[in-house]
Amino acid sequence: MKHLLKLLDLTGQEILDILNLADQLKYETKHGIPHPHLQGKCLGMIFEKSSTRTRVSFEVGINQLGGYAVVLGAEGSQIGRGEPVQDTARVLSRYVDGIMIRTFGQDEVEALAQYGSVPVINGLTDFCHPCQVLADLMTIREYKGSLEGLKLCFIGDGNNMMNSLIVGGLKVGMSVSVACPQGYRPPQEILEFAAGYGDKFELTDSPMQAAKDADVVITDVWTSMGQEEERQKREAAFAGYCVDEQLMAQAKPDAMVQHCLPAHRGEEVTDAVIDGPKSICWDEAENRNDWPEQRDIGTAGVPGFERGIDAEELLAETVEEHQPRPVRGGGKEFEHQRQVIGQYALHGLKSGVPVQLVQARQSTPKPGIVPIPMPCKGQAALAVHIENGDVLLAQAGK
Ligand code: CP
Ligand code: NVA
Alpha-carbon dihedral of residues 308, 310, 313, 318, nearest 10 degrees? Predict the structure, then answer.
């Protein structure tokens, strides 16, 4: 059974696989291609903290997959009155097909997975925010084409967002530099993990140092949910840890800014930066539409993808009828791309439209990490287009 409890549990390749599939589901949604892989399935959502993005995006996401959601808040349920998580897990598993939980302790999420018998997704704990960071990485890759070798910088609290960005960034081949005040550093478990990546990880108390030559600068609130009583103390401790234009001048000229939101404008980020040309916060929020998370709701992943027909097989079957030309860049490392292409072609055939597979030309993207089928913004990439009912593999323009 697949859970999504923390990014520490996933390999770098598993993270990239989720991003590939997320790109595919996003493409399908944007092009009106139905993907009811979770038809009739119910997602239970438990919120012990507030939420706008997670709440809405999960509910929309499960509906796009053909399922539906039941929402439980701490108030009005027995969870808020202290019913043990083990009992909640056992009982909810009898009603629903998957559980998303937003709560305080990571141990609560782990216990839910241990005692329940359905997949569990972490929708934020004090320790980590894996769904958000999958969406962050997805967004960075849409702009940059690949993640490997980029420098990610985080300015702020050694809390859920910083923890997940350190783990996710390092696992997909980025270098990660974080700045936080003494006393607000990430927990030992995260620092031990990061120590395994040598000089690809940097921890400093200087925001300027962390931002130097960064490709993406990310921040989060100084006072997270549940820490409200510490607000004054934190405002003093984090003074100077603001992503403003002066800090952004340290980063690369084409550096981007992310914030998981909600933002406290004027504290961790200025209006000029979050509303400015470097901000990709709204694309980032859009990618919380839970394309990354949708994959984890089904016990065996999204079956449509796993059973995706390989484009080369499709070519062999349809060559007489459609006279398609071979897809270039074959081989194991392009399996994902071929399966995606095959799926769209299959969709076209099933809908009774003619299918044409056009040969990809030069600038074959780096295998395994290119977002197919969404073309990278501002870069050439392979993409599948459906035009006039035809399924085309084409070269996306610059
Ligand atoms: N970024 C995020 O998780 O937002 P919500 O708290 O609104 O869900
Ligand atoms: N660090 C923030 C993230 C909100 C999405 C919090 O935990 O409140």
Answer: 70
pLDDT tens, position by position, 84-110 = 999 999 999 999 999 999 999 999 999
Atom of ligand 2 nearest to the CA of 227: 8
Ligand 1 near 260 CB (within 6 A): yes
Q: What is the pLDDT of residue 388?
A: 39
Ligand 1 within 6 A of CB of 52: yes
Report the alpha-carbon distance of residue 73 to residue 31 in Å, rounded. 34
The token pair at 167 is: 């783990």
Q: From CA 22, how far away is CA 39, in angstroms rounded?
A: 18
Q: What DSSP element (H or E) covers 385?
A: strand 381-387
Do residues 268 and 235 make contact, with C-beta atoms less than 8 angstroms apart? no
What pLDDT is recorded for position 360?
36
Ligand with minimal distance to 156 CA = 2
Predicted local distance difference test score (pLDDT) of residue 17 = 81
Q: If we measure between CA atoms, which residue out of 26, 22, 215, 52 comes closest to residue 124?
A: 52
**Catalytic-residue membership of 37:** no
If you measure from the C-alpha of residue 259 to the centroid of ligand 2, how many angstroms do you get, rounded to a whole number?
10
Q: Which of 177, 80, 168 is nearest to 122 (CA)?
A: 168
In sequence order, the 6+-apart residues with CB closer than 8 A to the CB of 396 are 375, 376, 380, 381, 382, 383
Please write the tens of the pLDDT for every residue from 293-330. 554 443 323 223 333 344 445 444 443 443 333 333 34
Global model pTM greater than 0.85 = no
Nearest atom (ligand 1) to Cα of 225 = 6
- The pLDDT score that the predictor gives to residue 361 is 34
Q: 51: Cβ below 6 Å to ligand 1? A: yes
Buried b (16+ CB within 10 A) or exposed e, 74-86: eeeeebeeeeebe
Distance CA 290, CA 305 (A): 16
- Examine the pLDDT at 369 and tell me if it is beyond 50: no
Catalytic residue flag (residue 265):
no
